[in-house]
TrEMBL record:
It comes from Paenibacillus cellulosilyticus. One of its GO terms (molecular function) is transferase activity. InterPro entries: Glyco_trans_2-like, Nucleotide-diphossugar_trans, TPR-like_helical_dom_sf. It comes from the Bacteria. The keyword Transferase applies. Residues 5-124 form the Glycosyltransferase 2-like domain. This is Glycosyl transferase family 2. The keyword Cytoplasm does not apply. Keywords: Transferase. Transmembrane segments: none annotated.
Length: 374
C-alpha cells in the first residue's frame, strides 16, 4: 500500500476546510497545510487535523505556494486539493481502493473534477486534472495564476472524482493579479494571455477579452484544449455584444483544432434555429448527440450539450417541421434527464394533445426554441 501526503494552500477557509479534511482524514497519511495569510479560524481548524501547518508570505503566485507545500511532504505520493473540494463517499471508497492497489510504477494519477451539478444531481461541468503524483519525481507547479502541475512518466486515468463545492469566491482576485503583472511591465506567455482573456470575459469586458483571445490564437502556441476553449469564449463574447455572425464564425473556427464538440454543434444549431432553418438546426443538434465523448477529456466539458439540451431543441425543430412523433420522442429523451423541467412538461402536454387527443386537454403552443439558453 502506498502512503499519501495531502497538500493544501489556504487562506480564510474556516467555512469549508473541515469538510474537505473530513473527506480524506482516514486516507491521507500526512496532511500539510500552507497558510498564505488567514485572519479567521483557518489555522485553528487545521490544527484539529494536523500539526504540519506552515505560513507562506503571499506573493501573488499560486505555483510558488503549491511548490512550497509539495516541498514539505514526506510520503511516497502527494495528493493536492483546494479547501473547497471534497471527495464524496463513493469516491472516498475508490480512493481507498486505489491506495491499496496502486503500482509503484505509476508516477501520476488523474481524476475527474466535477465543477457543477444541476438540480437533479447530474454533473453539468467537469474536466480532468492530475491529482496524485509520486513525490520522488519532483514535479513542479507552473504559472502564477491558473497554475498547472507539469508531469511526465507512467500515468493512470482513474474514475475517481473530486467535487468542487465552493461557498464563496473572490471573483476579482485573479484579475487583480494579472493587471498588477501587466502594470509591472511583464509580457504574458500564451497561457497567461488566454487566462487573462478569461478573467476579462468573466468581468464583462468583452471587447478587451476578444482582443486577448485573438492574440492568444495568433500566437499559435496554446494547448489544443485552450485553442478550442478560446473559440467558445470568443463566440460567447460576440454573442454578448449582439454580433451573431461573429459568434457563428468562431463556433466554426473551433473545427480547425479538432473533432467538433457538442457545445459547438449546439451553438451552430441554435444559430440556424433562429433563422427558422429547422432541418439544418436539427442536423447540428443531432450531431451534438452523436459526437463521441471521452470520459478522460482534459478540457472543460458542458455535459448539457451532449444530453438533454439537444433533445429539447430537436423537439422544437421537429414540431416546426410538422413531425410531432419525432418531437415527442426527443422531448421524452430530455425528460429522462430533467423529469420536472417546466419546458419539458409543457412540451409533453402540448404534443400529447396532438398525438393522443383522447387523453389530453386543450393544446397549447410548444416551448419556443429561442427561449432556451445554450
Amino acid at each position: 500500500m502506498i502512503t499519501i501526503s495531502l497538500c493544501l494552500i489556504v487562506k480564510n477557509e474556516e467555512d469549508v476546510l473541515a469538510r474537505c479534511l473530513d473527506s480524506v482524514r482516514d486516507i491521507a497519511d500526512e496532511i500539510v497545510i500552507v497558510d498564505t495569510g488567514s485572519t479567521d479560524r483557518t489555522k485553528e481548524i487545521a490544527g484539529e487535523y494536523t500539526e504540519a501547518i506552515y505560513s507562506f508570505e503571499w506573493i501573488d503566485d499560486f505555483a510558488a505556494a503549491r511548490n512550497y507545500a509539495f516541498s514539505l511532504a514526506t510520503s511516497e505520493y502527494i495528493l493536492w486539493l483546494d479547501a473547497d473540494d471534497v471527495f464524496l463517499e463513493a469516491d472516498r471508497e475508490k480512493l481507498l481502493k486505489l491506495k491499496a492497489e496502486l503500482s509503484n510504477a505509476i508516477d501520476t494519477v488523474s481524476m475527474n473534477y466535477h465543477l457543477a451539478k444541476d438540480e437533479y444531481g447530474r454533473v453539468t461541468s467537469s474536466l480532468r486534472r492530475n491529482r496524485l503524483v509520486k513525490r520522488s519525481r519532483g514535479f513542479r507547479w507552473i504559472g502564477a495564476v491558473h497554475e498547472y502541475l507539469e508531469v511526465f512518466g507512467p500515468s493512470l486515468a482513474s474514475d475517481i472524482a473530486v467535487t468542487h463545492a465552493s461557498l464563496r469566491h473572490d471573483s476579482d482576485r485573479n484579475l487583480r493579479i494579472y493587471e498588477n503583472r501587466l502594470a509591472a511591465g511583464e509580457n504574458f506567455n500564451a497561457r497567461d494571455t488566454f487566462y487573462y482573456a478569461n478573467e476579462l470575459k468573466d468581468h464583462g469586458k468583452y471587447e478587451q477579452a476578444i482582443a486577448y483571445y485573438t492574440k492568444f490564437l495568433l500566437l499559435g502556441e496554446g494547448w489544443v484544449e485552450d485553442n478550442i476553449s478560446a473559440c467558445a469564449k470568443l463566440s460567447d463574447c460576440y454573442s454578448a455584444l449582439g454580433n451573431d455572425d461573429m459568434m457563428m464564425h468562431h463556433a466554426l473556427m473551433s473545427f480547425r483544432y479538432g473533432t467538433p464538440l457538442p457545445e459547438f454543434c449546439c451553438r451552430i444549431g441554435y444559430w440556424h434555429l433562429q433563422q427558422n432553418a429547422y432541418e439544418t438546426a436539427a442536423y447540428w443538434y443531432q450531431a451534438a448527440l452523436n459526437t463521441p465523448q471521452s470520459a478522460q477529456t482534459w478540457s472543460l466539458r458542458n455535459d448539457q450539450c451532449a444530453t438533454w439540451l439537444p433533445h429539447l431543441q430537436l423537439c422544437v425543430c421537429y414540431d416546426r417541421l410538422g413531425d410531432q412523433q419525432r418531437a415527442y420522442m426527443h422531448n421524452e429523451k430530455a425528460r429522462e434527464y430533467r423529469p420536472t423541467d417546466a419546458s419539458v412538461l409543457y412540451n409533453k402536454q402540448y404534443l400529447e394533445s396532438i398525438l393522443f387527443p383522447e387523453r389530453s386537454e386543450e393544446p397549447s403552443e410548444v416551448q419556443q426554441g429561442d427561449k432556451i439558453s445554450i
